[in-house]
Design a protein that fits this description.
The chain crosses the membrane at residues 34-51, 58-80. By secondary structure, this protein is mostly helical. It is built from 3 helices and no strands. It has one domain. The model has no long low-confidence stretch (mean pLDDT 93).
Length: 82
């Protein structure tokens, strides 16, 4: 159950990252990478507090990151095709 909660919280963090990235669409790519690192760290720290295990935290973070961006690409393709 803790894994699921950490996963959902990280999806919220990635959604906030997506909104922040959308709001800063005229920023340089370096600033977007810095913002990504900050959100990654933020999500990692939150999940580490929930799970109490660095290894599981890292795995859940990678799974949530790949899930979020896969769904983001999928829905962007669906919107473009409409």
């Amino acid at each position: 159950m803790k894994n699921y909660i950490a996963f959902l919280v990280q999806l919220i963090v990635w959604s906030a990252f997506s909104i922040a990235q959308w709001l800063s669409n005229k920023d340089h790519i370096e600033y977007k990478w810095i913002m990504f690192i900050i959100f990654f760290y933020f999500g990692f720290i939150i999940a580490k507090k929930i799970l109490q295990s660095p290894k599981r935290t890292f795995v859940i973070t990678l799974i949530s990151l790949s899930t979020f961006f896969s769904l983001k690409v999928f829905f962007e393709q669906v919107i473009i095709s409409i």
